[in-house]
Amino acid sequence: MSENDKKDKHFITQDDIITVLNSLYNQSIKGISKVSPPITDLADDYLRKSPNPEVACKKMIKNQIAKCTTSGFVTGFGGVITLPVTIPANISSVLYVQMRMVACVAYMAGYELDSDQVQTFVYACLAGVSVNEVVKLAGIKTGMKVAQKGIEKIPGKALVKINQKIGFRFITKFGETGIVNLGKLIPGVGAVVNGGLDFAETKIIADRAYKMFFEGDFSAGQKPEDEIPDEIVSKSIQAEIIEPTYDSGYKMVMYEGIQCKMYRSYINEDDGPLVMVASPRDLEKAYELGFIRIGHPNEVVKYISEEEYNKLINN
Question: Does the predicted TM-score (pTM) go above 0.90?
């Protein structure tokens, strides 16, 4: 690749991912003026209404998930979140909302949010990276709520390794969802990457957070066989961020009872016709009909045949 080509492209590394997460963490803890209150204010509001932390936390989680599935809630953060590394606005918005929820769970469970260990655990919960082995090596018994002093035993070197896995997992996750182009950078790891960055995953992350901070289950839903080998994680990856070139011409159609935007082509001229779900309310039904998410949370599509396209275009 020539130097001029490199200048025209945007890349992201594992270190960039951690830089993004650090920025989002600080903003989620402090809140954003006129947009979202500090985590402590959010948590204390629920704790005043329900003194039992477990009950209060479950109510908070339920409400946060409900907000995430409301059209316009997440996209409303666009433009107010500032990051040192450029990633698609929809992705940073979803990560911000999910991170606030996880951090709020940690705070309500009695953890100190300015702790490096807690911060790393929040990232691990978001990424679905297990920290079970690190916790055990620190002499902490899993399967029960762990005190703040317990996780402070985890050394900085261990946190660095966890962060490497977190950065790696987010890059591979972005690759699966079409946000970055991995090419042949990391072959053979697709099987260990589960889930995407969409509203549906927020429920999974919420369950992980409660189990981690209230019940002492630090596996983050990751099975031992899905553990990413250290020799792969330690490699430096530079992935190209895909800049979509959307075709703005579409027609509103009804496809299998779902209101959709129909495109002749969407990203590339030759990628074929497709229909895209127009309303978040139809997402569940769309997935049942074989729709897939190709990038941003609101890009849920199904490729259709030329025959289907011609039929719909003429209706």
Answer: no
